[in-house]
Design brief:
It is a single chain. By secondary structure, this protein is α+β, with helices and mostly antiparallel strands. It has a domain of 179 residues. The protein contains 8 helices and 12 strands. Strands 7-8-9-10-11-1-2-3-4-5-6-12 form a 12-stranded mixed β-sheet. Strand 7 and strand 8 form a beta hairpin. The longest helix is centred in the first third of the chain and has 19 residues. It starts with 13 loop residues before the first helix and ends with a helix.
């Protein structure tokens, strides 16, 4: 018998579906890069600058900045095409991070019809949280709060019994009458966690998530880099930090990148897009501040062979 937690044949699990939905960011980007920017804008801006200069001259004033600014100035935001590589690479070079992704399932394109119709996700939104070591040696992977609850280390991956039951219930297609309640009654007396080390390579590390996110955005937009994106670049504050904000909007599609305004380490803080009425938001926080999750004691972990034996005993 296959593992009870397996999805129905010819269906795509939520973990696989979540990755595909990151293409929504690229879809919004494609709509914006295809349309291009307003070529008249620079000329209009130049005219406005000239009017301001003429007015200052007539009034006997000038627009020179103060000699002694009262606080450290935020560096101007470079063009996104110039900063892109540094943004991704400096983010990947950090030790740890917390990533929160809120992604709609609906706009999956051709893949949508293959998502298991029994998946029970409130408002059809995937919520993914990765938190911990960038390379994967001590991080948590949480999908929709309870359906996927993993602790992953370089030599072990475990999933909580509660989330095993939740995942089974969400993807279940009545495997020989085994109900989620039956499964719970068989598992809970044996431990609190299930060894899933053999499946660990299916779960993205924080670093791999960032790499796949970049690839997904560029591939879906049909571009090799972000230099084709004519984004507005501005400085602002976000969560108490000075940031660079790259954004654009056209025909209902919007994309916004928020990046820490640091010329040495311009870290990702938020990527947000909206296309066809669906919003995708990915936030990055707690850079280099995430503690390693506690590794469960051996006596509360159900081994993979033991887990399979329990599953086999139910049919």
């Amino acid at each position: 018998m296959e593992k009870v937690v397996a999805t129905a044949p010819e269906k795509i699990s939520l973990k696989e579906s979540m990755f595909k939905t990151t293409g929504l960011l690229g879809a919004a980007m494609l709509a914006l890069t295809a349309c291009g920017g307003d070529e008249a804008a620079p000329a209009e801006a130049a005219d406005a600058d000239q009017v301001e200069a003429d007015t200052d001259e007539e009034a006997g004033t000038d627009t020179e900045p103060a000699d002694e600014p009262t606080e450290e100035e935020v560096p101007d935001a470079p063009e996104i095409g110039e900063a892109e590589d540094a943004i991704w690479q400096s983010s990947l070079d950090q030790d740890s991070v917390t990533i929160n992704a809120v992604i709609p399932i609906n706009p999956l394109g051709d893949a949508a019809e293959h998502v298991d119709e029994n998946i029970n996700v409130e408002t059809e939104i995937v919520r993914l949280v990765l938190s911990g070591d960038m390379a994967g040696d001590g991080y948590t992977y949480t999908l929709n709060e309870t359906m996927g609850d993993y602790r992953i280390f370089s030599d072990q991956a475990v999933q909580s019994v509660d989330s095993v039951i939740e995942e089974y219930a969400a993807n279940q297609v009545d495997i020989q009458g085994v109900t989620p309640e039956d499964f719970r009654e068989a598992l809970e007396p044996e431990g609190e966690w299930v060894d899933m080390t053999s499946l660990a390579n299916q779960l993205e590390t924080p670093a791999l998530f960032i790499e796949n996110l970049r690839s997904s955005i560029l591939t879906s937009a049909g571009v090799e880099d972000l230099s084709a994106w004519e984004a507005d670049a501005a400085t602002d504050t976000h969560e108490g930090e000075d940031v660079w904000v790259y954004s654009s909007e056209n025909d209902g599609a919007t994309v916004e990148f928020i990046v820490l305004a640091d010329e040495q380490e311009p870290l990702l803080m938020e990527i947000r897009s909206e296309s066809a009425g669906e919003e995708t938001v990915v936030t990055f926080s707690d850079w280099n501040e995430v503690a390693e999750p506690e590794r469960p004691e051996d006596d509360v972990v159900i081994g993979e062979d033991e887990f399979q034996g329990i599953a086999d005993s139910l049919v």
